[in-house]
Amino acid sequence: MSKERAQRRAEREREAAIAAAARAAEAERKQKRDARVQALSARLPKPRKRPGGIIAQRRRRQTGVLIAALVFINMVVWVVSHDWAVRLGVLVVSALAAPVLNTLLFRRT
How many angstroms separate the CA atoms of 70 and 91, rounded? Predict the structure, then answer.
């Protein structure tokens, strides 16, 4: 009876040692991976923070609306007109007129 108990205890201890070794190996791999990630991310440039105020949010929305309108106009011209000169002309004019339209439509006071 005592030998049987000793064998079972030895078996449990052996399994516990194997599990502990596996956990230690996994922890070491994780630590090495974290060190590599940290070394790589230290070399990357830090992302800039965007202004988060109400004015910045309004400005982003206005710029998005203007760009969406210009893209829509270009798509309509692209579908309606089959002349490449007209298509390219509207594209160039919309690119050049975008800052002017932004100033005229969304006046900053």
Answer: 9
